[in-house]
Every structure is written in C-alpha cells, then in structure tokens.
Write a structure and sequence with these properties.
About 40% of the residues lie in helices and about 15% in strands. It has twelve helices and 13 strands. It is globular, with a radius of gyration of 21 Å. The structure holds pyridoxal-5'-phosphate. Pyridoxal-5'-phosphate binds near residues 82 and 153.
C-alpha cells in the first residue's frame, strides 16, 4: 500500500521526547521556548508563539488583531473547516470569497467585492502548500485598513518572492497535526513581527494571564498551551524540514513529468515567484476523459492511496448554510470540489513507488 501521507519519526524525535520525559517537565517549558525561537528564525519573523493546534493559532490570531462581535472577516470556502470556525468563535461574521481556478487560493477580485464598512480582516489560506496572491491582497488590505491572517497550516517553508510563509500577512498560523509537512501529532504555531499581537497571543493561550504577571487575569483566554513533549517532536522535525520540503518538491516534479501528457488531467499550477511545498499534490479530473471516482477506485485496487481536499466547499455544509449561503454562490470552489484529487507526494515515497503511481494512472487513462 502506498499511503497518501505518513509521519516521519526517527531517532532524533525519540531522543528529544526522552529528554523531556527524563526532565519530568512535560507541560509548557524550555522546549516550547526553544521551538518558538527556532521557528521565528525559520520564518524570519520577530516572534513565534506555540499553541496546541492550528485551530488555536487562528483563534488566537483573530483575538490578537481585535476581531469581535459585529465584525466581518473574509475567507475562502475551499479549505478545512478550522480556517472558518475561529471567526464564529470570536462572534464575528464569516464572509466567503471564491477562489482562483488555477491555484485554488482566494481570489483578490472577489475579496474586493465582498468588502463592507464592517470588514476587519482577511484570512488567506496557502492551500496545498502554495502561498496565496499576497501582492494583490496586501494592496486591498492597505486601501481598506484590513489585517491579513495567513492560514499557512499547509505551507511550512513555502515562499513568495523569497519571503517565507508566516511573514506574508500580519500574523501567520501553522498546524503541527500529524499529516502536515512538519508535525508533533497535534500542535500549532503563530508568527508575527508585531510585539503587541505576540503578547496578546501569549496571554490568550494562558487564560488571559500575562506571562509576566501570573494570576492576574486581563481578559478572557483559553488553555491553548503546547506541551514540551510536543515541542520536542516539532524541534526534531524543524531540523529536518528543508530535506522534507526538497523531497516533496522533487517528488512533485517527477509526478508532473510523468503525468503531463494524460488527457483530462490538469496538473498543479505554480504561480510565478512561488516556492510551492506540496503539502498535497492535487490534480483535477475533467470527469469526461478521467472520471474521478473511477480513478480513485482503480488506484485503491492497485494499492495507492488518494484523497479529496475538499469534497464540498464550506458554504454547502449545514453549519454554514444557516448563514444564508446556497449552491451556485461560489462556482469556482464548487467546480473544484467535484474535480480535485490528491495523490501521494510525501517524502518517504521511493522512486519505484512514484513510477508505480504514474504507471497506474497511465494505465487507467488507456482502459478507463
Ligand atoms: C490542518 C489545517 C488547519 C488546522 O489545524 P489543526 O491543527 O488540526 O487545528 C487549519 N487550516 C488548514 C487549511 C489546515 O489544513
């Protein structure tokens, strides 16, 4: 079986975890601090704050920029639910904007159309490992005095014009969930150059206590703290991230080369100036020459895992439909959800396995 994703756990992770176990300090401590320092260096931001999930990171970021009841926050419906739920958690209103056909990322023109006097922020998603169009989005944000929260949960180490994700908006949010490009099982990181935002995130993860004055509650907060055990795993992973990324990019190049002549299959489009880190290698099936559900079944029969991210855009789920959205509101996202298919691209794939994937899809395109 060639799985769609697989966590990489080596002796380095085990050694780091053992150190924590032997120290007897399992909750937030020196490993979390070290991870924050190393991750800020990696993203070239002044601050990084560790939390216990990507969801907590996005929630904290919204709090830090002051999102509250009555505010509107614009985001994409073609994402994981954790991008959008924290907007509701802060009592604000979700306003969706459609995506671009080629990159699956939020369409700046549609963002522009959705702005009202209540709009306070945009949550961009660097979907599948490719940064959104920040050049256009930043212009819009500047013109309307909006903050940009970057959901980089799928894009650790990706770049736009040489700048790293996490530094492309006002605050960056990362997930360390088990299937992400680097992971700690569960976990999250926030990055920013803004000292006030950093302090507010630290407070928010710790029941509203300033870490300088314990048992002084400044505001509502949560227990969003990361364990040193998690930070230990993430630190070991961070040391290897450049190798992981390189391997993903090489695997993607091999897949692109091998699959490029198959009719009915659209390969990932990489925007100019972008370093795409291929959290997912996502193709489109036209459903005429290449029928997606049949291809999935064929791959499965041959022992190859695949996945659909995402089978339904957020606005078509009951949870979001109640805000008045309906079918046809975001046609580009809706079309994408019917066509996308993610193939294995993770760093543990062997040359032989990549050839197997290519061979199998070619075979399918001939016989159908
Ligand atoms: C994984 C992910 C998240 C949230 O991550 P958790 O760590 O599971 O809370 C948010 N947004 C996107 C796009 C993701 O892929």
């Amino acid at each position: 079986m060639i799985p769609l994703s697989k966590p990489i756990i080596g002796p380095e992770e085990k050694k780091e975890v053992n150190e924590v176990l032997e120290s007897g300090i399992l909750a937030q401590g020196s490993k979390v601090k070290e991870l924050e320092e190393e991750f800020a260096k990696f993203c070239k931001t002044k601050y990084a704050i560790a939390v216990n999930s990507g969801t907590a990171a996005i929630h904290s970021a919204l709090y830090a920029i002051g999102i509250k009841k009555g505010d509107e926050v614009i985001t994409t419906p073609f994402t994981f639910v954790a991008t959008a739920n924290p907007i509701i958690m802060q009592g604000a209103k979700i306003i969706f904007a459609d995506i671009k056909e080629d990159t699956f990322n939020i369409d700046p023109d549609d963002v522009q159309r959705k702005i009202t006097e209540k709009t306070k922020a945009i949550i961009t998603v660097d979907l599948y490992g490719q940064p959104a169009d920040y050049e256009s989005l930043k212009k819009i944000a500047k013109k309307h005095d909006l903050r940009i929260i970057e959901d980089a949960c799928q894009a650790h180490g990706a770049e736009l014009m040489g700048e790293k994700t996490g530094s492309l908006g006002d605050i960056g949010c990362f997930s360390l969930y088990a299937t992400k490009n680097i992971m700690s099982g569960e976990g999250g990181l926030i990055t920013t150059n803004n000292e006030e935002y950093a302090e507010l995130c630290r407070r928010f993860r710790h029941h509203g206590q300033s870490e300088r004055t314990r048992y002084e509650y400044c505001d509502l907060g949560y227990n969003y703290r990361m364990m040193d055990l998690q930070a230990a795993i993430a630190l070991a992973q961070l040391k290897k991230i450049n190798n992981f990324t390189q391997k993903r990019i090489e695997n993607a190049q091999k897949l692109i080369e091998g699959l490029k002549d198959i009719k009915g299959l659209t390969l990932p489009q990489i925007s100019p100036g972008v370093k795409h880190v291929f959290h997912q290698f996502t193709v489109r099936c036209d459903n005429k020459k290449i029928k997606r559900e049949k291809l999935i079944a064929f791959l499965k029969e041959k022992g190859i895992g695949s996945g659909i991210y995402y089978p339904k855009p957020l606005h078509l789920h009951p949870h979001f439909k109640k805000f008045g959205y309906q079918e046809g509101d975001f046609p580009v996202s809706e079309k994408a959800s019917k066509e996308v298919l993610s193939l294995p691209v993770h760093p543990l794939l062997s040359e032989k396995e990549i050839e197997e994937i290519i061979k199998t899809i070619k075979e399918f395109s001939r016989i159908k």
